[in-house]
Automatic annotation (TrEMBL), chain A:
Residues 69-259 form the ABC transmembrane type-1 domain. It is found in: Cell membrane. It comes from Nonomuraea jiangxiensis. This is Multiple sugar transport system permease protein. Belongs to the binding-protein-dependent transport system permease family. Gene3D superfamilies: MetI-like. Its main location: membrane. Keywords: Cell membrane, Membrane, Sugar transport, Transmembrane, Transmembrane helix, Transport. Pfam families: BPD_transp_1 (PF00528).
TrEMBL record, chain B:
SUPFAM superfamilies: Periplasmic binding protein-like II. Transmembrane segments: none annotated. Pfam families: SBP_bac_1. Residues 1-26 form the signal peptide. Residues 35-46 have a biased composition (Low complexity). Residues 29-50 are annotated as: Disordered. InterPro entries: Bact_solute-bd_prot1 (IPR050490), SBP (IPR006059). Keywords: Signal, Sugar transport, Transport. This is Multiple sugar transport system substrate-binding protein. PROSITE patterns: PROKAR_LIPOPROTEIN.
Amino acid sequence: MKRRDWWVIGCYAVVAVFLAWVLVPILTVVLNSVKSPPDIFSATPRLAFTPTGDNFAKVLGELRFQDYLVNSTLVALGSTALSIAVGVPAAYALARLPIRGREWWAWLILFTRMVPAVALVVPMFVIFQSVSLLGTYAALVAAHTTFNLPIVIWMMRSFFEELPPDLEEAAQVDGTGRFGAFLRVALPLTTPALAATGVLCLLFSWNEFLFALVLSGRDTQTVPIGVASFIGTVSVDWGGSSAAAVLAMVPVFVLGLAAQRFLVRGLTFGAVKG
Amino acid sequence: MSPRRHSSRHRLALALLAGLTLTACGGGGGGGATTGQPDAAPATPGGPMGRFAGEELVLSRWAGDPWTSGQKQAAAEWAKATGGTLDIDAVPYENLHDKQALTLTGAGGYDLLYVHPSWFGEFAKAGHLAPIDGYLADAKRNPSGFSADSYLPNVLAQGKYDGKQYCLPDFVSTTLLAYRKDVFDKAGLPAPQTLDDVAAAAAKLNGQDGMAGIALPGKRAGAVADIMGSLLTAQDNWWYGPDQKTTLDKAKAAKAIDFYVKAAKAAPSGVLNFHTDEAATAAAQGKAAMIISTTPSLHALEDPAKSATAGKWGYAPLAFTAGRPAGELIYWNWCVAAKSEHKDAAYSFLQWYTSGAQQAKVAIAAATAGGTKDFYTNQDVQAKLPFLTAMNQALTTSNPQPSLPTWPKAQDQIELAVQEAIQGKLTPDQAADAMFQAVQTTLGG
């Protein structure tokens, strides 16, 4: 066998091990979600079993996990929309406008991302309580925007910087203003990047735990709180938590598939200069 | 019950910040005038006292565990009978303390709280809880014949701080030994009477028919300290005295650790990562001939849906000397928040839910015991909980799970010492010494 063949086999082996490492836990969760307790707790993992929908029935019936899904959807969409609405113009400004000390501004924005969430959550709790927003969607959207906004600004800034300024200058020569050049030229050209950034924001918001725990109310708790709620003090509802985890994964999985084209293009946007 | 999987770093950070905000936010007043009709007779026999039309209560508790749905049902029954509403704010147990501390430090928002003993002292000292002596003593607010005397005195006393009664107990449990009667019969072994019998049987049965000799918690999550507490109580010793100075006898601690190490040698692999549920799962699946754990987790042994060994278990309290059983009194406190504007309604639910009849419903579903005297004479409960007799014996000689604000730190060090003894890093004597130092340091001399 040629040396190159060994190299290819080695690559496949590494990929196979990596995929097993990543996918086996997910597969276990998926299988547990349709297993009855005796099958879940069997001494050796059972691959042959009679599937049951009891876990999903309990999670969606008695425990109303769909409420958590709705809450997470509203918060994630709200935070992403707000972050993009504010962050994209800010990113463009930092990339293009002659702002004094703009690198410092950019680093200052990034610094907010470096502050541990646990240090922010208590002041936020006090602030939201004082303005009677504690336990509302608005509080969660605002809180999640604090960590999504720097991501949007930094990602989109780098994308805008990769665009040739000539295109916008040409548009301005043709009579549009700076904002028009941004809206009609720069923004359409960065659509894949915008989609990738939006997906990342959605994912970060969807999976966020601490702010959701402290700032949410009984009616606004999000998916991570719901999934963690299956861990009791003396027992863990493995079937229920697995069903909840599957339900929590489905929207993200669908989103990932739908946005795959944009994600690949967006995340490699500007990686190679033409 | 034991604090489990607790992020101490996270908790500490939040506690510090919460403390800072205390001064920033101000204390708030709390209290409130009488609301509703707290002395109205129950709508149905055995129902809750009072009418509280339009009053909206919020209860803070942990999420998960089998009896959550039962509690929701109780809340709905209370609401229907009194005209009020009771919403449950359930968060993961690991985060319950922080969520409660933040909420109570701020403007409030909770009327009723489940407070674990390890932070009861902290909350009472901070003024987060409302005294209920007046409610308990007021015959008009309680069903006929119901008073503080209805509770087991030693259990009720755990809800006292600085001479005032703040909370009512429920979720009573303890540590017990469970052993496979069929396995012991087959091996020709008598039912274990003492912990020496347990260690000997564990060594003999270990490895037979693919079983470990015994399963028990080894993870630093609270249950190890609970079992150690029971092993000390079985030797007439305890971590500290009434003056909160340590009374730990190193020789007795070493004997307890020695037993733990012997048992761990006959435990399933990975015992250091076992909490109560992992130990119970192993035993339920026939992978251990015995188990020492807390009573709620032992309930899984008798659940045919989860256990391949249901009906095969015998139960006994922990005892170093035959006829001298001991346990640790593990319990939770139901408390009324100081800032609640619905204290009358909150007490109505609290009294009703901790009464023997309601606790019997919880016990049958979840294997926890009530805090009232009549609970232990309930025939339905006795029929459903095969370990109730052993539990009673254990609780007869028991010390309550420590509730000092500083105790979680000591508890962690106690469990670390046990782990290091199991790993062979420390001898039982050295581990006992480390334990003594940790307890003494935590208690301040």
